[in-house]
Amino acid sequence: MGRMTHLAPLLTLSGGTTIPAIGAGTWPLNDREVASMCLTAFEVGYRLIDTAENYGNETGVGKAVRDSGLSRDEVFVTTKINRRWHADAVAGVEGNLVRLGLDHVDLVLIHWPNPDQDLYVRAWEGLITARERGLVRAIGTSNFKPAHLERIVAATGVASEVNQIQCNPFTDRADERAYHAAHGIVTESWAPLAAGNGLVGNPVVHRVAAAHGVTPAQAVLAWHIHQGMLPIPKSSDRGRLTENFAALDVRLEDAELAALSALTNPDYELADSDRFGH
Ligand SMILES: NC(=O)c1ccc[n+]([C@@H]2O[C@H](COP(=O)([O-])OP(=O)(O)OC[C@H]3O[C@@H](n4cnc5c(N)ncnc54)[C@H](OP(=O)(O)O)[C@@H]3O)[C@@H](O)[C@H]2O)c1
């Protein structure tokens, strides 16, 4: 992993922390698989790894960070707290740190708002405390709708720095992204390739990709990056990790972005965070 490795540009979060413009997803890899994937990803140039308590692979991510030979401040680790920690998010983050074997994480997200238990404002207060104590450099949310985001900022005066949502051309969430942009919240896209749901096989995606001499996955990831979203595609394959990372260099025309945004798939389901959540 030489100093010549080409790295992703950095985005600046509202709290001042910088975050790479693309990351590597880790679900559903186990500890052994994820450790191997992370080391490959670091060699390719990724510095952002996305994990969660619910994925059961934080131990493997932490091992890879330690084994990578990279200094801690070169790597950006995101993890998430699940619903059982909403009443005590500091304890939740302490658990993340033990499993990761790290003394801090770069970003912690509330994984789902879980409105059924109505404790996400309390969870947000806990994450603010965790940030004040230096357990985490930046704090954010996942699967929050604008109403959830409004509520945490109204209660605490502190806005989410990142909202990680299911976002890809089949479900482009334009209104929510506009809300995020207006409030200084970075949109992180999960399922950026709509994995396994026909997006990378779609003829419109193929046409856009062919016009630029790139792969369908690169065209889709460029759609995210070009519009300021931060995609976290998952792949365990060195070739696809490399391919996905190279999407940073692809620039699409406005008409191509619009053509991708217009794609739909009636069989592709959007997880409703008012009803769903681990
Ligand atoms: N916050 C949340 O609630 C939430 C929910 C779900 C996921 N996530 C996070 O988001 C990450 C990404 O989402 P995801 O894994 O569901 O979906 P995804 O990244 O859209 O798709 C992953 C799938 O696409 C394949 N793939 C990767 N690169 C490819 C390429 N260049 N060409 C063709 N196929 C390719 C992968 O297979 P190979 O591995 O074989 O390459 C894998 O099956 C997760 O890993 C996780 O970290 C968060």
Care to describe what's here?
The chain is of the alpha/beta class and 278 residues long. The chain has a domain at 12-193: NADP-dependent oxidoreductase domain (TIM Barrel), CATH 3.20.20. It has helices at 31-44, 58-67, 89-100, 120-132, 146-156, 174-182, 203-212, 216-226, 238-245, 254-261, and strands at 10-12, 18-20, 24-25, 48-50, 76-81, 105-110, 136-142, 162-166, 186-190, 230-231. Helix 2 links the parallel strand 4 (48-50) and strand 5 (76-81). Helix 1 (31-44) packs across helix 2 (58-67), helix 1 (31-44) packs across helix 9 and helix 7 (203-212) crosses helix 8 (216-226). The longest helix has 14 residues, at 31-44. It is globular. The N and C termini lie far apart (37 Å). The relative contact order is 0.14. It binds NADP nicotinamide-adenine-dinucleotide phosphate (NAP). NADP nicotinamide-adenine-dinucleotide phosphate binds at residues 25-27, 50, 111, 142-143, 164, 190-196, 200, 217, 232-237, 240, 243-244. Residues 25-27, 50, 111, 142-143, 164, 190-196, 200, 217, 232-237, 240, 243-244 line the site of NADP nicotinamide-adenine-dinucleotide phosphate (NAP).
CATH superfamily membership of the domain at 12-193, which one?
NADP-dependent oxidoreductase domain
Mean pLDDT: 96
Tell me the span between the first and last alpha carbons: 37 Å
Order of helices and strands: EEEHEHEHEHEHEHEHHEHH
Largest beta-sheet details: 8 strands, parallel
Which ranges are low-confidence, i.e. pLDDT below 50, for 5 or more consecutive residues?
A: none
